[in-house]
Amino acid sequence: MTAVPEPVARVAGLMSTFRPRWFLCGGWAVDAWLGRQTRDHGDIDIIVFDDDQSALFDHLAGWQLVGHDNHVDDDSSEIWDGRLLSHPAHIHARSHGAAPATPETGRGPGFNLEVVLSERSGRDWVFNREPRITLPLRRCAQQSAWGLPAVVPEVILFYKANPPAWRDLPRPDLRPQDDLDFRALLPHLTEEQCNWLREAISLVHPGHTWLPQLSP
To answer: What is the model's pTM?
Structure first.
């Protein structure tokens, strides 16, 4: 197993005492599955379940947190006070002592952690509030090549194929880094993973540019 890059190791250390489940996601999770860094990353993304956000708020006591949901503009720098965020929601976090956030982005130096709040129903993970697309929780995240809990490749790519509303992108347009991540993971997907990803994307975006490459 290759050494975990320092930024990811730092977050793993931070979350090692967080009792609820958490998972590495986004571009660093792609690298975690491949066991090597494939590109530069602006921040580190993790997933925590929506009903564990109070535990997260307590765990990150001393951090500066900005929560974003339908009631807070994405460019807000308003500090999250622990109120219950409504789904879909995400949180920008920076360690204590970092420079103040900028009004334009809600971020500043040290804002290197983004927490995405995800939904679950019973033993299933519900994707993007789309009840037709679920997976058993036990299949959604596993130990990666870096030994850290990471969202499985097909789920990573499903999220990347469907940029969340706060990205302010006209769906299904892709960010260049998302297409790079797709190309990096595609040769490593099993037939089962390709089939699930193709069917899930087809339900949301039947004309998505990735679909031909996922076909048998």
So the answer is: 0.86
